Give the backbone structure.
Amino acid sequence: MRVNRTTVDLSGYPDLVVVYLGMRVRRPRGILRLLGLGPKLYRSHKDQPDGLLLHEDVIWALFPPHWGARQYWRDLDSLEQWTRSAPHRDWWQKFLRDSGGTGFWHEAYFMRGGIDAMYDDMNASNGLTRFAPVVASRGRMFSTRGRVHDEPAKVEPVVGESAYYGTESD
């Protein structure tokens, strides 16, 4: 007997982006942030933003709570447009002012090559940080396009580098 072995034809998705993301509780008050933001994020993908092909919820760990998702996007342009629009933009701005006792991360894998990673307020090693050197998110490393394609962002970030770090120039 043989197993039914299959694969997928991704030729119709030349710019596919697969994103893994997670929110980990770091302090007790983080449970409130996770429970408050989680349902909002869940509802947001139900609105089927342009370019989102599939969203799957993931529980990375139960203790400490670490929940997230795997998403498949048609291309980086549509992913960027969604992240720069409400309500995602508003959540992200609030998180960057105060993580609420949580850490957030994403890792993105691009059909045309390249991997992106970003970790905010993560107090434990996760994913790529467990074996690759961790560097500051500054200069070209501040945006996904800079990290992956060494090119400037096509749309303004939710919070610019100078505003984030409190400096005069990017």
Summary: The domain at 17-160 is CATH 3.30.70.100 (Alpha-Beta Plaits). The chain has a mean pLDDT of 90. The helical segments are 30-46, 76-83, 88-97, 144-149, 161-165.
